[in-house]
Amino acid sequence: MSSCNTTHVSALPLYLEDSVEERVVGGEVARPNSWPWQISLQYKSGSSFYHTCGGTLIRRGWVMTAAHCVDRSRTWRVVLGDHNINSHEGREQYMSVSRVYIHPNWNSNNVAGGWDIALLRLSSEASLNNYVQLASLPPSGQVLPHNNRCYITGWGRTATGGNLSAQLKQAYLPVVDHKTCSSYGWWGSTVKNSMVCAGGGSDSGCQGDSGGPLNCSVNGKWVVHGVTSFVSSSGCNAYRKPTVFTRASAYISWMNGVSIKH
């Protein structure tokens, strides 16, 4: 590859489910149910449900996901405790979604505008066990340092886009601080303060899918710091184009407000 290709800054943001890459560097199959707050968000088509995005169980009746995953009107369900989405393993809990709350500032015509977050009200409360747990969310406003250890998790591509991983995968994606990520030659002004970047090296993948968690190690505990939002149109592990997440700590008060009122 000629060096001139690596310096262009015109790579457009793209949601993971629209990505052209079929398999991604750096991903591995997760130990079953080792990320017990990870959910599969599925939509109904005909008499079947199909995986489209990830999400995070944040309260027994509430899931956090990306706004762009749910800004179309569909019949949704959430599957908790899943590992292989193509088989019934007996640990799953299937919940219908009674209401979708998209952030009021979300604009589906502007990928890089931010506000890519939504809450799903489940029709019933999850039963917590070894396979289904609530995620820990960060304190409001907390920003992680450069290179903080994080993992993205998810089932990867949607069935319409090519190969979907049946088993939950994880990939190591260290945090790229905002100063670096928003600099020239990286994402520039596309990345807002309300976002988190992670990865961006040649060996870091974006094995996972939109709406799913960025799981970060903070003081020896896993905390969900991000909601997977977009990658570069030039590929998942594009040079200086880390995966971009909605920063969960920027939306704590909004999420609390929604779940307290409803």
UniProtKB/TrEMBL annotation:
Q: Which Pfam families match?
A: Trypsin (PF00089)
Task: Give UniProt keywords alphabetically.
Answer: Calcium, Disulfide bond, Hydrolase, Metal-binding, Protease, Secreted, Serine protease
Names of the cofactor(s): Ca(2+)
Q: Which GO BP terms apply?
A: proteolysis
E.C. number(s) listed in UniProt: 3.4.21.36
The record's InterPro entries line, in alphabetical order, gives: Peptidase_S1_Elastase_sf, Peptidase_S1_PA, Peptidase_S1_PA_chymotrypsin, Peptidase_S1A, Trypsin_dom, TRYPSIN_HIS, TRYPSIN_SER
The Peptidase S1 domain extends over 24-260
A GO molecular-function term, please? metal ion binding
Indicate where this protein resides in the cell: Secreted
Substrates-to-products reaction catalysed: Hydrolysis of proteins, including elastin. Preferential cleavage: Ala-|-Xaa
Under the heading PROSITE patterns, the entry gives: TRYPSIN_DOM, TRYPSIN_HIS, TRYPSIN_SER
Is Hydrolase one of the keywords? yes
Q: Name one GO cellular component term.
A: extracellular space
At the top of the EC hierarchy, this enzyme's class is: hydrolase
Q: Does the keyword Ligase apply?
A: no
Protein name per the record: pancreatic elastase
Task: Record the organism.
Answer: Myripristis murdjan
Upper taxonomic classification of the species?
Answer: Eukaryota, Metazoa, Chordata, Craniata, Vertebrata
